[in-house]
Amino acid sequence: MGAPPDRRDAALPVDAAPLAIVCGGGSLPVAVAEAVSGRGRRVVMFAVRGFADREVERFPCHWVALGALGRTFRLVRAEGCRDVVFLGAMVRPSLWRVRFDWTTVRALPAIVRAFRGGDDHLLAGIARLFEAEGFRLRGAHEVAPEILLPKGPLGARSPAAHEVGDIEHALALLAATGPFDVGQAVIVADRRVLAIEAAEGTDGMLDRIAALRQNGRIQLPPGAGVLVKAPKRGQDRRFDLPSIGPQTVEGVARAGLAGLAAVAGATIIAEPERTAKLADARGVFVAGVDETGR
């Protein structure tokens, strides 16, 4: 699949080489880029057209078409990058919407196999194509560990005892559904499962709960229920760790929930200070918990 990356910097520590961030949408690519550049490492953004936000242009940036693997590999190599991080939201495309260049065409059998499975399966398949070119795939938490959610409450509120029970129930459910490569989030109220994240994503699931409350399909008092997020068991944590941020808090408040909990050390948090302030302003909790819910 082409020549391996230029090895002229092979004597340098890995962290001395620039970091490539392949960007989807949302604020996470910029948050990670800021953290990495703050450590003195150069960051180059490879923004996927139709998904990434213009804000990524605050850093050196190349816009690439979805599926244009050959051009992407050439650009990453030309920038001297050895490590690559995948970050940001993307809607899973139809295979027929992928823009094929010659490198992509040659890799088509592997790409077709990658599409025959859940999101983790797809991401792992794309990662193997990058690794075959000699690049090293890294997790966002490896290059910027400070972006991970710490354990404990993020704002002023902590979950009440009955909410801890809902969190434990939700995490048990996510552990059971993880092998099926479905969503990373669930909403539970009084041990009743209200929603499991599917193709709509966390924000869409929260909007669904808000609509169900509004039309009377969910008749619970305001402030009942919790959103819980956790990585799938056995997933490759270099890709698609669960993430939360101010937008998640807004969705939790809009859905009338008490708060949200996510697995500490395995969840990316965007804009933690703003997230904590917004949680306090909206009267909801944000908590980092272990995998048992404590």
Structural description of this entry:
The structure is a single chain. Strand 1 (19-23), helix 1 and strand 2 form a beta-alpha-beta unit. The protein has a 6-stranded mixed sheet with strand order 6-13-11-9-7-8, with helices on both faces. Strands 3-2-1-4-5 form a 5-stranded parallel sheet, sandwiched between helices. Strands 10-12 form a two-stranded parallel sheet. The model is unreliable at 1-13 (pLDDT under 50). It is built from 10 helices and 13 strands. It folds into 2 domains: 14-143, Rossmann fold; 148-289, LpxI C-terminal catalytic domain (Cytidine Deaminase, domain 2, 3-Layer(aba) Sandwich), CATH 3.40.140. By secondary structure, it is α/β, with parallel strands linked by helices.
Brief summary of the model shown:
Helix content is 35%, strand content 18%. With 294 residues, the protein is α/β, with parallel strands linked by helices. Strands 6-13-11-9-7-8 form a six-stranded mixed β-sheet, with helices on both faces. It has a five-stranded parallel β-sheet with strand order 3-2-1-4-5, with helices on both faces. It has a two-stranded parallel ribbon with strand order 10-12.
